[in-house]
Amino acid sequence: MVKKSLVDRPNSQRNHRLYDVWSLVHFATGILLGALLNPFLAILLMILWEPLEILVLSPLFARHNIDFGFESLRNSLSDIVVDTAGVLLGYLLIAPHLH
After folding, report:
1. Do the beta carbons of residue 97 and residue 40 sit within 8 Å?
2. Helix segments in the chain, DSSP class H
3. What angle do CA 15, 16, 22 make, to 5 degrees?
4. Measured distance between the N- and C-terminal CA atoms of the chain, rounded to whole angstroms
5. What residue ranges do the domains of the chain occupy?
6. Taking a C-beta distance cutoff of 8 angstroms, is the pair 83, 25 a contact?
7. What is the Cα–Cα distance from 3 to 57, expressed in whole angstroms?
8. What is the CB-side half-sphere exposure of residue 65 using CA atoms within 13 A?
9. Is residue 60 within 8 Å of residue 52, measured between CB atoms?
10. Which letter does DSSP use for residue 71 in this model?
11. pLDDT over threshold 70, residue 25
């Protein structure tokens, strides 16, 4: 089996978009975590997800020819902004009704 590196993906390019389908997933996850956890912990977890996604999961999936987490810093930072918006919404609007 040939190992693929982050730069050795001839048929794909890094995701440079500010918003994409995954933004909805980030937003929904942020709402859920914001409703269930301390908002600082929720944001921290979601920020830590980004390097895990890019540096660990992306290379593992690439070995199986699956493009996942192959994104630019721009996309990663926009994911964090969307995550934070979701956490704030979940914490401010949903959490008070759960506790």
Report:
1. no
2. 21-36, 39-51, 58-62, 73-89, 95-98
3. 55
4. 51
5. 21-98
6. no
7. 14
8. 4
9. no
10. B
11. yes
CB 62 within 8 A of CB 7: no
Tell me the per-residue pLDDT of 26-64, one tens digit each, with 9 for 90 and over: 999 999 999 999 999 999 999 999 999 999 998 998 899
Residue 14: DSSP 8-state: -
Per-residue confidence at 12, pLDDT binned at 50, 70, 90? low
CA distance 91 to 58: 30
Nearest CA to 23 out of 66, 70, 76 is that of 76
Triad 67, 13, 86: Cα angle to 5°: 65
Task: Please give the helix or strand (H or E) that residue 12 lies within, else none.
Answer: none
Residue with tokens 């956490």: 87
